[in-house]
Every structure is written in structure tokens, then in C-alpha cells.
User: Fold these one by one.
Assistant:
Number 1:
Amino acid sequence: MRYEAESIEQIKSIYEMISLKGKKAVITGGAGGIARAVSVAFAELGADVALLDIPAAEEELKKNCEYLEKTYKVTAVPVIGDVSDEASVTQAFGAIEETLGTVDIVFSNAGITCTGMDDAEITLDTWKKMLDVNLTGMLLVDRAGAELMKKHGHGGSIINTASMSAHIINRRPAMTSQPGYTTSKAGVRQLTRALAISYVESGIRVNSISPGYVMSGLHQGVKAEVLNYNVSMVPIKRFASLDEVVGAVVYLASDMSTYCIGTDLIFDGGYTVW
């Protein structure tokens, strides 16, 4: 055990710590806005990327992968799978291993909302769907990624997308609380902590992010008065851009965060300060 601080000559290069050169990354919910932004960051930092999403997103996945390969000269592969189905996740990670060789980074980002249908009268089918995708999907993806890391004898980083709704109940124009969404996201936060302990001895770090309102495409179709109300509740008085999500994910994916285990990073424009 070393009990000495590094000398100034021993301090590592920040560029080397943030670099993902040679790393292999998986991003679920790969056709979404947040995944799109993070995939660009990972590729620019040198990582090969697999984007995983449902069959309906296949064309978007292909287009995004073509852009990443052309622009950043990395390998980018589209992968079809359902994160809520164990057999599908196993098959998807088998295909990723065959293509990329291994996995160093998992950004488990797939999730759904049920705007207008998620209140105290939530149907059991909706409740189950929210938990299947948002929470069970996290377990299945994290476990598949960790097993590949262990199989190939190296550690890695797993980042789960929770939400500020894992910490609070969002204010809304009507008195609806979205129990399905907020419960599933709170579960992600606690699952992250549990898996962090499970995998720490294998050199695998598990952490999560809790974004606030992000203009990711998820809000398309939401009425303007609802969006205006949401913005009015944020101290910074705006939604986050996709670019503002990237920093937290890159930090947790890179060697800049090697002492972060079970950490949840909130970036919400001050919403949860209230």
C-alpha cells in the first residue's frame, strides 16, 4: 500500500486520462438524442462504438454509425436488441463481442416514459413495461457487459442513466406524479450502488447519471404550455442541450473517474436544489 502523494512530475496527463483510444463501448437506446451525443464524444476520444436499440430504430442506428465511422475513423456497429429481454440482450452482446472483440465501457441508457398515462391510476401493463425497460433492462445490460469484461480479464466502466426523478417528484401543471417513471429511475440509482459493490473486485466501476430536463427528442409532441411550465421550475430557466450531457458520461467512462464507485452525478440546472 502506497501512502505518499504524487510529486508534480508524477501527475498524469489529463489528455491521457480522458482518452478512450482503443476502448470498446456499448450504448443502449442508441438511436436517441443522448446516445447520439455520447457516441460522438466516445468516437472523437478514440473508442469503437456499438449502438444498440430496438428494430424500429435500425435505420437511424445505421445512419449514425456511418457518420461516426466516416468522421472519426473508428468502428461503429448497429445492433438490434430488446434490453428488457434476457435472451435478446445475450444475443446482442454476443454479436458485439464477435465484432468488437470485447467491451470496456457500457452506457446503459435505454429508457421510456409514458407521458399522460403514468399517474396514480397507472395500468398494470404500463407499470410492468416501465419497470421491464427502465430497471430490469439496466440489470440485464449491466450484467452482460460485466460478464464480458470479466471473461476477457480486464475491468471497465458501466454508466447507468437514472434521472433527477430518482431523487424527487417533478413538479407538474396537474397533480400527477409519474410513479412508474420515478420508481423505476430510483431503482436504477439503487441498482447502481448494489452492482458497484458486486463488481468492484473485478475492476469494474458502476456509476450513474441523473439528468434533469434535456432537449433529447423525448419531449417532441409535448404541449408548449407543459414545456414552458417545466422550464419555469428550473433555476437556470432552460433545458439542457445534448452537449451538456456528454461531460458527465465521458468523465465516468474515462480514467478521470477511477475512484468513483456507485456515484450518481446530478446535472439538472439546479432543479433538485429547491
Number 2:
Amino acid sequence: MDEKIEEKWSELTLLPEWEEELCQVYRVKKHGKWVMLKCLKPEYRNIKEYETLLEKEFDARYNLAHPNIVMINDFETIPELGHCIITDNVYGESLREIINKRSITPDLLAKIQTQLPDALAYIQQNHIVHRPLRSEMIMITEEAKNIKLIDVGFDQLNKLKTQDCLEDIYNYGIILKEVLSILPTRLPHLKHIADRCTDTNPKRRYHDVQEVRLAIERRSSNSIYIAIISFIVAMSILLGWLNSRRAPQKVDNPTEQTENTTTNTADNPVKQ
């Protein structure tokens, strides 16, 4: 690299554990700030078919904006590496590494129940075609310990197939089972959710990510419906009572009523 390029890019480090079939990932400083870049492996560079795939991935992911999905910043050409997708720095440990070390914390377990389904729901709402969810593509950031999905999509469609959405639920259940298997305590509620996500009969699985989130929150769409109906019935009864004759009558002038009562008593003394 020439002097100007070296001033912009420094401390380039290959991350072998992030290697993909066609691409490799680096951690590097851009103007002194850590970022990450993804480029084609040397044997695939300058081949139109693969260059088009990289550009399509950039186009699909560039407009995504979710706190638990790695953000793409730019698409640049870097000498010796070719075209690169530039992303935020999400360097940390993968969920796979943490599972292997058996070091799941209560805080991380809570984020697996909330942040991960939220990210999946966002991906599905935006019709992003993505590779199967695996613990290797779930990063836990080094400082904030938040979940970040990497490599979330390579194309965007008008609508995802139902099978794609169900596959997300199945893979989420697999990950949840892995996590639960290394915890020192049994969590029957979460185990039930994981079992239903991975049921051998797809018809018995959750129908969408929203249903999974409701189950995690110990609710169901049916109970919410019942709560709404109960509220409407209660309000109808209250309004009916307020409008009925049994409701307290309004006193327009309490003083006048008191005076009339006193006068009537004087005019009609009670016989002894």
C-alpha cells in the first residue's frame, strides 16, 4: 500500500474464524477507528459472477437498521483486497465460542430471549434472504455484550417464503436447546419453547417469530384476545350502571335541599 492508503487503513488483521465459502473477513482501522471489512477470497476476485454476488449483498444489507444486526457503512475498493463491504466493528466472541466455554450468563440468556427474536423478526419483515441461523453468526460484542447478527443476508425479495420463516424458528430452537443444555439449572418454560420450535411435525411449531416472542413472555395471542374482550365487557357494564336509575342522583343545590327539609320539618312536627 502507498503512504496515503496506509494512513487511511492500518492494523489489517485476518479473522480466520469468520471465513465463509467465498469471502474472508478482516478487522482493520480506518482513519484510526476500528471497522470490519468483508471481501472475496483471492481465487474469486475479479470474476464477474462473484463480484455481482458481493454487490448484491451490499445492496440488500445497506439499508438495514437494527441494533442487533451488524451495520454496513460503505463499499470500497482496497488495493490487494479488491471490493470490500465495510461494517461496524463487532469484534467479540461468537455464541458458539461462549457455548463451548460453557459461560452463558443470566444477562446473555435474557438477550437470547429478546434481542435475537427481535432481530429475526426485523429480517423477516424486510424480506431479507439469509443463510441459516447458526451460533457462529451470532456475535457478542466485546464491551456492551450485546447480540449482533453477522452475515444476515445476500438478497432482498418482495416476500419471503413461508418455509424460510419456519426455518428461522427451527434454527432458533436449536440454538436455544444448545444454550439450555449447558445451564446448571432447569428452565422448563424455555425448554418447552425450544422443543416446540424444533418439533418434527412442522404443523406443531410456532407459526411466526411473533408467536415465539409471546410464548417467551409467558403470554399467548389467545390470552391477549380474552383480556381485551374482558376489558370491553367490564367497561360496558360500568357504563350501563352509570346510566341506570340505580346510579346516584346528582344534587343541584345542597343548601336549598337542606333548607326545604328544615321547613318541611317545622310545618309538619312529629307527634309525640
Number 3:
Amino acid sequence: MGEPKAAAGRNLGLDLLRMAAMFLVATLHVLGAGGVLDSAAPLSPDYETAWLLECAAYCAVNCYALLSGYVGVNGRFRYANLALLWLQAAFYTILIPAAFALLTPGTVGTREVIRGFFPAMSNHYWYFTAYFAMFFFIPAFNYLVKHLKRRQMDVLAVSIVVVFSLLPTVFQRDVADIFPGDLFITYGGYSPLWLALLYILGAYARKYNLFARISCAGAFGIYALCILLTWGEKWMVEGLGMKVLGEYIPGGLLVSYTSPTILLAAAALLAGFSKLRLPAWTAKPIGFLAPLSFSVYLIHVHPLMWRYVMAGRFIAFGSYGTVKLAVSVLGAALGIYVLCSAVDAIRAALFRWLDLRGRLSRLEERYVGDLWANE
């Protein structure tokens, strides 16, 4: 079965996945930085509800990384895209400190100002820094995927999953503190290495159309099963610890970017969204909103926003009761998404007015040309 296409040739489902994944990122930050997970009483219904939402959202970053390979393997590699992304990040790493300096004097020093001009080097955003490092090797990854034979790619993909997902999950430090933890130094997935590996897996899935035999409903069913397994492991370990030992023992063996269940959940969402059949009228709103989604991350995760706006902001949700807690968390995440998108619509209009994409593309054509056209 082919992928549903928009009129202009784009897969609307993949654009919608970008938006959905960023909504899940915002959900993670409401629960984590916002204080919901820490404020809910351990093993209470509120606690279990909050952690179920956490597990459901945890695959968001993996979705972005897999999607980059799924789309990028057949796309044209352009340095102009990274330059534009740098300017997009710098727009906020410069603007947000300036706003804080005006509104809350004393919160911004010279160090923050200087770092704002180097968003990837200052590690303001771990994902952008990791993606920046990985980006320069994308032509090599594409060449590898396009030129290896099917059996070779199969072995490579299985090796990635076993070595960097399965083994680090089984041999964690948490297992009686016997093993060193983070066996192959992926920092739990917060690294260029993990993003590169997922890029290759996403490209592999696209090259061989691995999602051809799975239905949209089946893919979302796999996602739901992975989330229940991830949450269920934590629930079972903590419940048994309290029942058998009479003390709270934190679970969460599978709650990690590199966890097999979280990796499979992301792949399932990619498969499901790639097969969505969306009405034609959705092309315009999705086409407008999807490019704004990355700035939702850039705005609300900026260190000053993280410290003075996000930290502990949603602690009260932890005692709301299960239904109200879930609605409040998802509502807060949606509010963050909508507000940040509205702000970024202004930035996007400014960039279009300045024709930054066109200017950067012309500079690349002039000085680099089609260096990787036949990779």
C-alpha cells in the first residue's frame, strides 16, 4: 500500500506526526519540569496516571529522529537547511534573554548573552546540539543505506537494535547495581550517536517500505501495547516492592529513549501516521502549523523559560485526581503548543519577508553546488 499524499506531493500524515510528537514533548515537560511526577504521591492513582502519560509521551524524540531518516534518505541534502535551523534557534536564544533582561532585570548576565549567538555550541537545547553534530554525516548515512544490499541492511538494523537498545536496557545499573550502566555511551539517547542510529533505521524503513503490511489501526495498536508494557513494568516492580518488601522501589526499566518498547512505540507511530488518510482541506492548516512545531521546543525549553516559567509550574496537578490530572496535563501541553506556535508564526513571517531560505539556498548553490547530488 502506498503512502497517502497531499496535493503537493507531501505526506500530510508525516507533517501531522511532527506536530503530534512536539505535543508529546510538551506533555513530558509539563509532567517533568512542571513538577507533576514529583508531586504525585507514589503508587497513588494520581501517580499512576501521571506515569502512564509520561510513558505514552516518551517516544516523542525518537519519532523525530526516525522521521528525519524516513524523509531524508530520499531528500536533497542541503547545508542551507541547517543554517536556517541555526538562525531559527538563534532567534530565540537572543530574543528570550533580551526579553528577560527588560522584564526581570538581574536574570540575564553577559554569559547568557554571548551563548545566545551560538545555540548549538552552548547546548541550550540538547536535541539541536545533537542534531547539529549528526547533520554533517547524513550524506554518508544515505550512501550507506542506498548501496547496502537488503540482507546487509537487515543485519545492520538488527545490530543497532540489539547493541544500542536491547543490551543497554537489560544490563542497566539498576539491576542490583552490578553493571556499569549506559554500556555504549549513548547517554540514555541524549546524544548524536543515538540520533544517527535512528536516522539509519528510519531510512531503512523507507527504503524497503517496511510499513507496507501493517494497517494504520494495527500500528496504533502496537504503540498502545508498547506503552502499556512500559508503564506496566514500572507499576509491577513498584507494586511488588511495596507488597513484598514494604518499601517503595522505583521501577522504570523501560522508561528510556533507548528502551526497546519506546523505540518500537516511535516506529509504530511513524507507521501509523504515514498511513493516515486525511481530507484535502487539512493540507493548508497542517502545512502552516507543522513548520512551526520545532520552535515550540525552542521557546519553552530555553534555559530561562525552563528556570523561571516551567519549573514547578504544574505541581498542583499532582493531587487533582486521575481524570482532572490527565485533562489538566494535556490541556497545559496544548496551551504551550498553541502559544509557542502563535509566537513562532511571527518569526516565520519575518524569515519569509527576509527570504532567508532563498538567500541561504543561493549561497549554497554558489559555493557548494550539488556536492552530494549523487550520494
